[in-house]
Design a protein that fits this description.
Rossmann fold; about 40% helix; about 25% strand; transferase; GART; GART_AS; EC 2.1.2.2; purine biosynthesis
Length: about 190
C-alpha cells in the first residue's frame, strides 16, 4: 500500500477528500502523517482520524526550516509526499531530498497563473478559463512537470470564492487519479 505524507497550511478540505478516498478504497494508499507550518484545521482533521501529525513553524533561514520539515517527512517513510494547500516554498535542497516523489496541487492550468494567488490572478487577468493541475515539485514556483490538469471555465459572475469552490473538486479528482496511478506504477 502506497504510504502518503500530506503537508497542509489551512483547513484541509483536499486532505479530507483524500482521506475519505483512501479509507473507502477508491485510492489505494494510506495517509501515514500530516505535517504543517502552523496549527490549522488540516492538522485537527488528521488528529481526529488518528493520523500522526507534526508542526514545523516557518522560520528563517528557509533552508534550515525546509530541512527540518523534510526530516520529519522522511521519518514516516513515505512513498509519496503531497503538498496540498501547503502555502510555503521548500528550499531547493529539501525538494531534492524528496524528489521525484513530491507533488503539488494547484488551482490553475499551469503554466498559467503560478504562485499563491492563482484564482485571484486569473480573475484579474480577465481570463475566460483557468483550471487545476497536479505537478511534480521542482525548485521553481509551480514550474515542475505536469502530471494531470483540467480546464475550468470562468463564469461572468464568478468571484474568487465561487471560482475556487468550483476548482477544488476538480483538483481533488486530479490528485486522486495521480495517487492511484502512482500506486499502480510503483
Amino acid at each position: 500500500m502506497l504510504r502518503l505524507v500530506v503537508l497542509v497550511s489551512g483547513g484541509g478540505s483536499n486532505l479530507a477528500d483524500l482521506l475519505e478516498r483512501t479509507r473507502d478504497g477508491r485510492v489505494p494508499a494510506t495517509i501515514v502523517a500530516v505535517g504543517a507550518d502552523q496549527e490549522c484545521g488540516g492538522l485537527e482533521l488528521a488528529r481526529a482520524a488518528g493520523i500522526a501529525t507534526f508542526v514545523e513553524p516557518f522560520a528563517q533561514p528557509r533552508a534550515e526550516w525546509s530541512g527540518r520539515i523534510v526530516d520529519q517527512v522522511l521519518a514516516h517513510e513515505p512513498d509519496l509526499t503531497i503538498l496540498s494547500g501547503f502555502m510555503r516554498l521548500l528550499a531547493g535542497d529539501a525538494v531534492e531530498r524528496l524528489a521525484p516523489n513530491l507533488v503539488n496541487t494547484h488551482p490553475a492550468y499551469l503554466p498559467e497563473f503560478p504562485g499563491a494567488h492563482a484564482v485571484r490572478d486569473a480573475l484579474a487577468a480577465g481570463a475566460t478559463e483557468t483550471g487545476a493541475s497536479v505537478i511534480v515539485v521542482d525548485a521553481g514556483v509551480d514550474t515542475g512537470p505536469v502530471l494531470a490538469q483540467v480546464r475550468v471555465p470562468i463564469h461572468p459572475d464568478d468571484d474568487e470564492a465561487s471560482l475556487h469552490d468550483r476548482i477544488k473538486p476538480v483538483e481533488r479528482d486530479l490528485l486522486a487519479g495521480v495517487v492511484t496511478n502512482w500506486n499502480q506504477e510503483s
